[in-house]
């Protein structure tokens, strides 16, 4: 059996990040962890483009524009949807996840989804550092895997 090994070297990769401004404490935490991990994997700050949007529902549209531009090797979605008292939580969670997946599948550009969906602010703050860093690793790994498969 031939196995393709995981490669987390991000040197020379061009990464686009779309970050929600809603729930700013959590979203800034996600971004800080993501950027730190990208740097640790060799991605230059000059090769990272950040676009911010009002909320999670707007993330897929900007991801799509970035993917279509052919300027990025991978994209990362950062946001936080925290449960409230209405059905709106389910709508935003489901539709943002669907949109992110569609961008990836239709464009062929890997998209790491770090849009947190939690029951409380505390859960989101506990997860932001881990998920931000994981998103960076997922993006890099998927670019290298696609390159190996090509």
Question: Would you kindly provide a brief summary of this structure?
Answer:
The protein has 150 residues and is α/β, with parallel strands linked by helices.
How many beta-strand elements? 4
Helicity, in percent? 40-55%
Largest sheet: 4 strands, parallel
pLDDT < 50 runs, ≥5 residues: none
The outline comes out as globular
The number of helices is 4
Mean pLDDT: 97
Alpha-carbon Rg, integer:
15 Å
Strand content: 15-25%
End-to-end Cα distance: 18 Å
Architecture overview:
The protein is built from 4 helices and 4 strands; from the N terminus they run E-H-E-H-E-H-E-H. It is an alpha/beta fold and 150 residues long. The chain has a 4-stranded parallel beta sheet, sandwiched between helices. The longest helix has 29 residues.
């Amino acid at each position: 059996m031939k196995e393709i090994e995981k490669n987390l070297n991000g040197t020379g990769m061009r990464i686009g990040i779309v970050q929600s401004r809603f729930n700013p404490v959590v979203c800034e935490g996600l971004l800080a962890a993501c950027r730190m991990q990208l740097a640790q994997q060799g991605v230059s700050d000059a090769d990272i483009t950040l676009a911010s949007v009002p909320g999670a529902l707007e993330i897929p549209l900007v991801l799509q524009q970035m993917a279509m531009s052919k300027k990025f090797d991978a994209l990362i979605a950062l946001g936080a949807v925290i449960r409230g008292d209405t059905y709106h939580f389910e709508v935003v969670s489901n539709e943002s996840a669907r949109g992110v997946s569609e961008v990836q599948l239709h464009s062929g550009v890997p998209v790491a989804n770090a849009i947190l969906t939690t029951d409380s602010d505390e859960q989101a703050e506990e997860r932001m550092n881990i998920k931000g860093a994981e998103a960076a690793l997922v993006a890099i790994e998927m670019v290298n895997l696609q390159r190996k498969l090509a």
